[in-house]
Design brief:
two-stranded antiparallel sheet; 4 strands; about 60% helix; globular; membrane; transport; MFS transporter; NCS2; purine nucleobase transmembrane transporter activity
Length: about 475
């Protein structure tokens, strides 16, 4: 994830060990080890742009999630939330690119924002809620500094890591199908095709057309297939919308059009509005449970995402480990604190980074490109509405399909391997949370190997993770037993 990969080490990467760097290699190549990781500047730029386009929805979705009232009845302004979301995403993603040198983009974690909105804000003020983000970010950074976070990641068996990658693939594919309107919550069944068992409206057909176009381009091995598909779908959507063919109400995230001026000044009114006092009103136990929940959301979702994207990018060794991750992991942890100070929720690595990896991104240069686009959105927020949600969703489905290819690495004849991998893969989309899939895989792996008399193969960290995840699944009854709400 940092300067190590499964690719042969380049002379640029060996420069720090006394090997002379050949002439003709640009400083950009030497700094990001572009050639050493089998990439090019064009691929990195294309990957960075693709990742941004797949993540741009967060600028609208995060303010929507955080739009509720806090315990004092106050709300956060939408314009200020968009600024905070864009600023925190830009800063953390740039840090990941320049310092972590990994093709990972960060933005407001939807799981973290959901916890803040549904569990924290009703009992606290918004500044106090953002203070909780800072606290959980500091906790994760301490886990990184002590080396515990990387040890935990490396303790997970290789087959389970492949399962995590596949589970994330199904998870983001489901997100893509759902956001596009292709899949709906059914009336007679849990889910259905479209709102009434059939596809309805131009936008969802545009999603299907964009999806097929990308698959066809990939089948022809055309570089930039995902980006070409997104741009083509956006152009078609804008034309159809401009001709009045599509009812504006049919678009899930708004019609693909420029509303008013393309330039807007950022609103930093939420920056620095963080409070650490007043938590005594809700009780120390409640604060502890909130921190525990936020750490789980920020820690294991990011861990699973890093494993999935890192494996897809070829940045893991033959045992599925990604040594030298300390910088990237520290930045991910710092994202919690940065997001809290900015007022836009804790930042975490986004699974949409896989879209850039799918376009060939292998280095931190792609993250720098993505970060610069987020920074530009501070002044060009209206432009984020041009790419329809239905078009961007097609890229998620494509990447999900690509990540499922890890199934070929799993020994399905071994029950101790197949069952934990199966539970990990299916529970991520079925529960709509990455953490639940990881938890089920870890617990079942420990239980089955213990039943087989192979408990010694697990290691102390797997036993520790099993205990943590047992608490995670039993958190609600534990809270009831302790009288915590």
């Amino acid at each position: 994830m940092t300067q190590q990969s499964v690719e042969p080490r380049s002379t640029a990467e060996d420069a720090g060990e006394g090997t002379r760097v050949p002439a003709g290699r640009s400083w950009l190549d030497r700094y990001f080890h572009i050639t050493g990781r089998g990439s090019t500047v064009a691929r990195e730029v294309r990957g960075g742009v693709t990742t941004f386009m797949a993540m741009a929805y967060i600028l609208l979705l995060n303010p929507l999630i955080l739009s509720g009232k806090d315990a004092a009845g106050d709300t956060l302004g939408q314009r200020a939330l968009i600024t905070a979301t864009a600023f925190a995403a830009a800063l953390t993603t740039l840090l990941m690119g320049l310092v972590g040198k990994a093709p990972l983009a960060l933005a407001a974690g939807l799981s973290v924002s959901g916890v803040l909105s549904s569990q924290v804000a009703p009992d606290m003020t918004w500044p106090q809620a953002m203070g909780m983000c800072v606290v959980y970010g500091v906790v994760i950074m301490l886990l990184v500094v002590t080396g515990l976070r990387e040890m935990i990641m490396n303790a997970i068996p290789l087959a389970l890591k492949h399962g995590i990658t596949m589970g994330i693939g199904l998870f983001i594919a489901l997100i893509g199908f759902y956001k596009s309107g292709f899949v709906h919550q059914g009336k007679a069944t849990p889910v259905s095709l479209g709102p009434a068992g059939e596809l309805a409206g131009w936008p969802v057909l545009l999603f299907a057309g964009t999806l097929l176009l990308i698959f066809m381009l990939q089948a022809r091995n055309i570089p930039g297939a995902i980006l070409i598909g997104i741009v083509s779908g956006t152009v078609v959507a804008a034309v159809l919308n401009g001709l009045g063919v599509i009812d504006p109400k049919q678009w899930a995230g708004g019609a693909p059009e420029l509303r008013g001026s393309a330039i807007s000044m950022p609103d930093f009114s939420l920056f620095g509005h963080v409070e650490f006092g007043g938590w005594g009103e809700v009780g120390a136990m409640t604060v502890g449970m909130i921190v525990f929940t936020l750490v789980l959301a920020g820690f294991f979702d990011a861990m699973a995402t890093i494993i999935g994207v890192g494996t897809e990018a070829g940045l893991a060794d033959d045992k599925g480990r990604m040594p030298g991750l300390s910088k990237a992991l520290f930045i991910d942890g710092a994202g919690g604190a940065i997001g809290g100070v900015a007022g836009g929720s804790g930042q975490t690595v986004f699974i949409e980074s896989a879209t850039g990896v799918g376009e060939g991104a292998r280095t931190g240069l792609a993250s720098v490109v993505t970060g610069l686009f987020f920074a530009a959105c501070l002044f060009f927020t209206p432009l984020t509405a041009i790419v329809p949600q239905e078009v961007a969703s097609a890229a998620l489905v494509v990447i999900g399909a690509m990540m499922l290819m890890n199934a070929r690495h799993v020994d399905w004849a071994d029950r101790a391997t197949a069952i934990p991998v199966f539970l990990t893969v299916v529970l991520m989309p079925f529960t709509y949370t990455i953490t639940s899939g990881v938890a089920a895989g870890v617990i079942s792996c420990t239980a089955i190997k213990t039943a087989q008399g192979r408990a010694r193969e697990l290691g102390v960290f797997m036993w520790g993770l099993t205990a943590v995840f047992l608490v995670y699944f039993a958190l609600h009854p534990i809270q009831g037993w302790l009288g915590v709400h």
